[in-house]
Amino acid sequence: MSSGTPHLRLCPPPGSDPAIVTHDAPTVSVPLTIERLFADYAGYVATVVLRVLGRDHEVDDVVQEVFLDAMSGLRSVQNPAAVRGWLKTIAVRKACRHLRKRKVRAFLGLERDCCYEHIADASCGPEERALLGRVYRQLDLLPVSDRVAWTLRHVDGEQLDTIATLCGCSLATVKRRIAAAQAVLERRLRHG
């Protein structure tokens, strides 16, 4: 799981448009409306959320929360070209909150185990599916901030400076979080 290995390949969330998942979303026309925003970016936001959460049954709720927040902040968007990054920031932060709630539920014994192998891309073989499942099960045990930084880097393929912006922290903090997560994952996956 070194930085030279390919990113984990997840399938697109149910109901998302594969064209939006694999390519940049279309440029939003002016004036921005929530309907147009949702039509153009729901698939993209769902993909981001799936990659961070790793559970497709949780994606729809978080996507709805993202667009509810987007509705209230839509007037503040000055540059339509910045919409994609703005929505991704909202999506990452909503996913972080969802992961924190999941940790509390797990602590209270209210969280069920999850099978992650089915979220692998159709082109993945059985070994890749098994690895993806093992990685996401280990990610569930990490602190949320470490998990999200690592996932954005190694699953989503984001640049470090973008991850710092998405997570609302410094570049040094992002590097530290990714390194901490990487060390734990390597140790646990080697011995597990």
Overview of this protein structure:
The chain has 8 helices and no strands. It has one domain. The longest helix is centred in the middle third of the chain and has 25 residues. The N terminus is likely disordered. Helix content is 62%, strand content 0%. It is an all-alpha fold and 192 residues long.
| Tally of helical runs | 8
Kindly state the number of beta strands. 0
- Helix-strand makeup class: mainly alpha
Helices and strands, in order, run as HHHHHHHH
Gyration radius from CA atoms, angstroms: 17 Å
Distance between the termini: 14 Å
Strand percent estimate: under 5%
Question: Can you tell me the residue ranges where pLDDT is under 50 for at least 5 consecutive residues?
Answer: 1-6, 17-25
Largest sheet: none
**Overall shape:** globular
What is the number of independent domains? Answer: 1
Relative helix content:
55-70%
**If you average the pLDDT, what whole number results?**
85
Keywords, separated by commas or semicolons:
single chain; 192 residues; mainly alpha; 8 helices; 0% strand; globular; disordered N terminus
